[in-house]
Write a structure and sequence with these properties.
With 815 residues, the protein is mainly beta. The chain has twelve helices and 48 strands. An eight-stranded parallel sheet has the order 2-13-16-17-18-19-20-21. It starts with 6 loop residues before the first helix and ends with a strand.
């Protein structure tokens, strides 16, 4: 594996490597040769960073420390969700959601019919519980008013979910018939840490009380008001990030233009922020607003990569370049000014008014997010309009495009990759031969998608191999960020399968991939050193022959299927009458049952599957009839199914029922193969679907019309060993990063070319585990890096690398 160098250096190393003796290889020893005498490019100082987004309750119910869910009372238009009545006397109380006709604000009305020796109140269940820790101080605030007959007081407490144990308590007196803000301090004692708690405001006196903006905060990172959760911030700090891309990807765009991240609605008094509907099926409080994002950067000493809304929303709405786009361009200029301006500017002065006198450092501005999904083709023009306006006011600002454009030359282009671990490994050399003339590359979202809700150790191996490739191309790839970053692991909290850091209300943990990121970021030199990896012989390759069973699926869609038939050379391999049942089918995700002779999937889950057949089937014609009943998409027709992670599918009416494409699933993640076709599936209509697979040729027909065809090709052969190296000039160390993705221990000879004296002892860290191992709240360090000391190091030394391992080794040398 040879890194990308100038032609002269390529020629030099090619000749040098041709002279290597095969002695070690013939003895079953692989070789890693580090060419310290031919240093490569400087490593970007902004290489390792963070990408953030409101998904999986990453902000509300995650990093943002607020413990009350639905504090603005806007999560549902008619019902105060996450709030309920506490009525210990079993009579005389009710709650309801009220709307102020003057300003549209929401309030929670508690009505108490009569005084009682017990209590009547309201309770909030938090984000899957209110966390309680021993000897901890909480701050509760709320706005309230009362009817004239209410004499108070109010009791505010945190208590066990069944109400049997009071964890902390305070009193509020002096309510009036006008709105006022109240605050109390709640202190726990020697309690047991738990998440099975609730927040309660109650009274024993009759009357009516209205509540707004009820808030409860535990201690926060660096004691910031309206701040972030301490343990999660500490884990992010452990990754040594140089930048934060904010406020998110899809979260920036919104499903509609009205649901975009409107930064001006996220600043100022937190109690006045109405929040907005996010694209991942829950509402954002906007408590983590633009200023809080910038303070997050400040707290972790990160640069800001500011993504600005660029006139495209996820469901396809866009704003054409020209006068209609101009207000959004101005909004972006105002946003940059809010972050970077001084007291003489309108929005800099507003930031100072909001409590932060010092300007922030914004080094990059990204125009939009994933605009390749904009089918209108308007991004080139939209980008140019933003680019010209930003460069005119901020000529040194680096501008990022979300896809290649022609109207202007961006400083950086943002590439995104979600793949299986095997695909990441095979593509570790993705940028080795890329054009160095620019623009630079920001790999702004990427991950090996294996494991729910956080990555497996196998995914971490794929991530490590991919990162080695990115780092050695750091002259071109100036930034990288894993995504998604955070996930609340409670049931129904997550929307994305594989995420870096997991948590519940009390606990948090880093995944194996988190430790890869941390190990690599904390052990990066300033200069890339060229590396060549040569493996011991592993025998002849197996012949390529496409094969596999069949299946059916949906994506958040209710659909039904019938008349399934598979034939080979006129002979029937399989035929199914679903009226006879589904005993031979393997039912996976989704809700599948037979209705009126058809197999129906009726849940709104993503990526549902049911499969049948023989994984050795080759050269067949697959027929099925399908009908969409409801939902946003069409059909998933699986073929060449080897197992539940490796298969092909024809996605018909996917991407919001806009197009169709063939997809290859490898290790659980999908990639498109061939050209997509515009397709819209009509509901309640039967479609005849046929897929012909003959050798490597695939042809797909809809109602006897050929829609798409591709040729299946074997994946490039993955190597077992990946290695990268860099030099830390300040310490004189060579830093080796070595990944063994195989099931065997690999005895490997390391050759350090072009060095003087070498210290005989090296140190570092090693991450090992079984491929399916995952960390969790109950086993947070099942896969965890352990320190290593390696003796007998010299200009050439041999060490055995464990199976499924990631190793970082620091070696002191003198030139």
């Amino acid at each position: 594996m040879l890194m990308s160098l100038s032609p002269s250096r390529h020629a030099f190393l090619a000749g040098l490597l041709a002279l290597l003796t095969p002695t070690a290889l013939s003895q079953g020893v692989s070789q890693i040769t580090v060419h310290a005498d031919h240093p490569g490019p400087k490593i970007s100082p902004t290489f390792y960073g963070l990408m953030t987004e409101e998904i999986n309750h990453a902000y509300d119910g995650g990093l943002y420390a607020e413990l009350i869910q639905n504090r603005s009372l806007r999560d549902n238009a008619t019902t105060p969700v996450h709030w309920s009545l506490v009525n210990a006397s079993s009579h005389g109380g009710s709650i309801s959601l009220e709307t102020d006709p003057a300003d549209g604000s929401k309030s929670l009305l508690l009505s108490i019919a009569e005084a009682t020796p017990n209590r009547v109140g309201v309770t909030n269940d938090g984000y899957w519980g209110i966390p309680v820790w021993p000897n901890t101080t909480y701050h509760a605030t709320f706005s309230a008013k009362a009817s004239s007959d209410f004499k108070g007081p109010l009791t505010v407490d945190i208590e066990s979910a069944d109400g049997a144990t009071i964890q902390a308590q305070a009193k509020v007196v002096g309510l009036t018939n006008g709105w006022r803000e109240y605050s109390v301090v709640l202190r726990t004692g020697k309690v047991t840490a738990s998440a099975e708690n609730r927040f309660v405001i109650s009274s024993q006196n009759h009357g009516s009380v209205w509540f707004r903006s009820v808030s409860l905060f535990p201690p926060t990172y660096k004691h910031r008001a309206n701040g972030n959760r301490i343990d999660l911030m500490e884990k992010l700090a452990e990754m040594k990030p140089s930048f934060l891309r904010l406020p998110g990807g899809n979260y920036l765009e919104g499903d509609t233009i009205d649901e975009r991240f409107d930064w001006k609605a996220t600043i100022g008094n937190v109690a006045d922020r109405k929040g907005h509907q996010g694209p991942w099926r829950y509402r954002s409080s906007d408590g983590l607003g633009l200023l809080e994002f910038l303070e997050w950067c400040e707290d972790l000493h990160m640069k800001t990569v500011l993504a600005v809304f660029a006139g495209y929303a996820l469901r396809g709405a866009h704003i054409d370049p020209g006068p209609k786009l101009e207000p959004f361009v101005q909004d972006a200029l105002d946003e940059i000014e809010y972050a970077t301006g001084d007291a003489t500017t309108k929005w800099g002065a507003r930031r100072i008014q909001d409590g932060h006198p010092k300007p922030f450092s914004v080094i990059y501005v990204e125009i939009g997010n994933e605009d390749s999904f904009d089918r209108s083709g308007s991004y080139d023009g939209r980008f140019a309009q933003f680019y010209d306006a930003i460069k005119a006011k901020y000529p040194r600002m680096q501008i990022i495009a979300t896809e290649p454009v022609h109207s202007r030359k961006p400083d950086v282009v943002d590439d995104h990759y979600y793949r299986s671990a095997a695909e990441m490994e095979r593509d570790s050399g993705h940028y080795d031969k890329s054009d160095r003339r620019g623009p630079k590359i920001f790999v702004g979202e990427w991950a090996s998608i294996e494991g729910r809700p956080t990555p497996t150790h196998q995914a971490a191996l794929g991530d490590a191999a991919w990162l080695i490739g990115l780092e050695r191309n750091s002259d071109l790839v100036v930034m990288e960020a894993y995504a998604p970053l955070l996930v609340n692991v409670n049931p129904r909290a997550a929307q994305w399968p594989t995420n870096l850091i997991g948590y519940d209300a009390i606990n948090s943990f880093g995944s194996p991939s988190f430790y890869v990121q941390s190990m690599f970021a904390k052990n990066t030199g300033d200069t890339v050193l060229p590396v060549n990896v040569t493996l011991a012989s592993s025998g002849p390759a197996k012949p390529f022959m496409p094969h596999g069973a069949i299946g059916l699926g949906t994506w958040r869609t209710d659909a039904e299927y019938k008349d399934v038939e598979v034939t080979h050379d006129g002979r029937t391999l399989y035929h199914k009458d679903f009226a006879l049942g589904t005993d031979d089918w393997a039912i996976g995700r989704g809700t599948w049952k037979v209705e009126d002779g058809s197999l129906r999937q009726s849940s709104n889950r993503e990526d549902t599957h049911a499969t049948v057949g023989d994984a050795t089937w080759t050269d067949y014609t697959y027929h099925v009839k399908a009908r969409q009943l409801s939902g946003p998409e069409g059909f998933l027709i699986l073929f060449h199914v080897e197992n539940n992670r490796d298969y092909w599918q024809w996605n018909i009416g996917g991407w919001g029922n806009t197009r169709s494409a063939i997809q290859r699933h490898d290790g659980g993640s999908a990639e498109e193969v061939g050209e997509a076709t515009d397709t819209k599936i009509e509901p309640n209509r039967w479609y005849d679907i046929k897929i012909d697979v003959h050798g490597s040729d695939i042809k797909c027909y809809l109602d006897d019309k050929l829609i798409t065809e591709v040729t299946e090709t074997p994946h490039p052969v993955a190597t077992a060993l990946y290695a990268g190296a860099s030099r830390a000039s300040s310490s004189g160390e060579i830093i080796l990063k070595i990944v063994n993705v195989s099931s065997d221990s690999l005895s490997t000879q390391v050759n350090l070319e072009g060095v003087g004296d070498v210290a005989s002892t090296g140190s570092g860290w090693e991450l090992t585990g079984k491929p399916d191992d995952q960390n969790s709240v109950t086993e947070p360090k099942k896969v965890f890096p352990h320190p290593i000391t390696v003796q007998g190091i010299g200009k050439s030394f041999t060490r055995t690398y464990p199976p499924y391992s990631v190793t970082v080794l620091r070696v002191k040398t003198r030139r």
